[in-house]
């Protein structure tokens, strides 16, 4: 049975607090098995017989809208996709592991178009560097995110689509369970 990771937008941010045991029960009520959460930021790992990530995303979004009363945009990746994402090296000429650097991975529903990518790359600076690989946007931030002039909200506005950000360390920790 395929194993998936759901990256949920708007969980435990902006006043939307959801306990992880409740979130697990919601996923189990949707018919998913082997449900587990990873840290309290909306990362849910589960098994499903479905072969369609888009159908899973809609099912989860509808159920969470009903249960929580607000939209929770959902981005699904298989565990094998997540392993590839965690291993991907978007910055050939920069050391993302250097002191003070953090790489964030934004999950989006579709590959941003050429114009959106051009807009995004125009925000490249001494602090922020960006790279797009399919439905993932990598953001190398050379300071604390709060010290950058860029933000997740600006990312969504620039791309013209919703996204959810995760620290690459979180993604690597989830992926390491399945590599």
Q: In angstroms, what separates the terminal alpha carbons?
A: 17 Å
Indicate the overall shape.
globular
Number of helices: 6
Gyration radius (Cα, Å) is 16 Å
User: Strands across the major sheet, in which order?
Assistant: 2-3-1-4
Number of strands: 8
**Fraction of helical residues:** 25-40%
> β content, as a range?
25-35%
Secondary structure class reads alpha+beta
Total separate domains:
2
Helix-strand string: EHEEHEHEHEEHEH
How does this structure look, described?
The protein has helices spanning 20-29, 53-68, 79-87, 114-121, 152-159, 168-176, and strands at 3-8, 33-37, 43-47, 74-78, 102-108, 128-133, 136-141, 163-167. Helix 3 crosses helix 6. It has 179 residues and is of the alpha+beta class. The protein is built from 6 helices and 8 strands, in the order E-H-E-E-H-E-H-E-H-E-E-H-E-H.
State the main characteristics.
single chain, 179 residues, alpha+beta, Alpha-Beta Plaits, four-stranded antiparallel β-sheet, 6 helices, 34% helix, 25% strand
Question: What is the secondary structure topology, with strand pairs?
Answer:
Elements: E1 3-8, H1 20-29, E2 33-37, E3 43-47, H2 53-68, E4 74-78, H3 79-87, E5 102-108, H4 114-121, E6 128-133, E7 136-141, H5 152-159, E8 163-167, H6 168-176
Antiparallel strand pairs: 1-3, 1-4, 2-3, 5-7, 5-8, 6-7
Helix pairs in contact: 3-6
Summary, kept brief:
It is built from 6 helices and 8 strands; from the N terminus they run βαββαβαβαββαβα. The two termini are 17 Å apart.
């Amino acid at each position: 049975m395929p194993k998936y990771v759901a990256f949920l937008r708007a969980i435990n941010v902006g006043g939307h607090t959801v306990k992880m045991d409740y979130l697990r029960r919601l996923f189990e009520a949707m018919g998913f098995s082997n449900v587990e959460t990873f840290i309290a930021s909306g990362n849910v790992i589960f098994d499903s017989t479905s072969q369609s990530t888009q159908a899973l995303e809609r099912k989860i979004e509808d159920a969470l809208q009903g249960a929580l009363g607000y939209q929770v945009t959902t981005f699904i990746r298989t565990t094998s996709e997540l392993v590839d994402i965690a291993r991907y090296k978007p910055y050939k000429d920069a050391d993302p592991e250097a002191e003070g650097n953090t790489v964030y991975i934004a999950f989006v529903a579709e590959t941003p178009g050429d114009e959106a990518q051009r807009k995004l790359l125009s925000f490249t600076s001494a602090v922020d560097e960006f790279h797009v690989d399919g439905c993932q946007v990598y953001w190398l931030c050379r300071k604390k995110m709060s010290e950058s002039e860029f933000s997740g909200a600006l990312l969504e506005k620039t791309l013209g689509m919703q996204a959810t950000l995760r620290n690459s360390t979180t993604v690597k920790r989830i992926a390491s369970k399945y590599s």
